[in-house]
Amino acid sequence: MTEKNAAPSGITMEYGTIDSGDLESLFTKDRDYLIMESSPVDGYQNLRYEIRFPEVVGLTRMEITIQGVRATKFVNQNVYAWNYNTATWIFGYSMDVRPALKEFGVSFRGSGYSGKDRPIRLLFTADLKVLDSFRVYLDSISIMAESEAPEATLKDKLMALTLVYPWDTIWYGGAISHLTGLGADKIIAEMEKGK
Ligand SMILES: [Ca+2]
Asked: Can you give the pLDDT at residue 154?
């Protein structure tokens, strides 16, 4: 299991415009804000944008931290993450954004949220049935990503396994047994090849 922190790598506005700041404004909590303004869509003021993060191979969990959030009107901003397995946006959290600065944490667990050539994609949506536009301020956003260590060597994996199963149990009667769980089939295949 490995953990790493990632900063945003891209932003796309679907509804709304960027008033000031840019992607780099989101890297640190420093009162340098990304400020976005809603656009009118079918009688609503709408803000809909996607923020991407670098791919994390073997991602099993992600904790998203959003700091220094405020809006010029009371508005709920929904957060979704794209799941490549189901090809749908998975709802994560509804952020109750106020004119006063707030902080939010959103988590997603499971597979399908990232992988090789599959950046983490987060979607933020907010709409209000009002005439005048509203603005949303974001100071920083970051992800703590937890993954099954793809770079772990066979030895690392076996060392972890031997904590659960002693060697003589694994090499029971000259054959490999008692190996189950994620990646066990690959380990057995490699061990069989090397014996
Ligand atoms: Ca900032």
From this structure: 52
Q: 65 and 122 share a domain?
A: yes
Strands 75-83 and 102-109 turn out to be unpaired
Same domain, 138 and 184: no
Going from the Cα of 47 to the center of ligand 1, the distance in angstroms, rounded, reads 20
Residues 127 and 73 in one domain: yes
Does residue 57 sit in the same domain as residue 143?
Answer: yes
Domain shared by 139 and 160, yes or no:
no
- Residue 77 CA to ligand 1 center (angstroms) comes to 19
Count how many domains the chain has: 2
165: CA distance to ligand 1 center in Å?
48
How far is it, in rounded angstroms, from Cα 35 to Cα 20? 5
Bridge partners of residue 144, in order along the sequence: 5, 63
Which residues constitute the domain of residue 65? 2-147
Residue 55 CA, distance from chain mean position: 9
CA 33 – ligand 1 centroid, Å: 5
Cβ atoms 69, 101 nearer than 8 A: yes
Claim to verify: residue 120 and residue 39 sit in the same structural domain: yes
pLDDT in tens, 127-174: 999 999 999 999 999 999 998 855 555 555 555 555 555 555 555 444
- Tens-place pLDDT, residues 23-51: 999 999 999 999 999 999 999 999 999 99
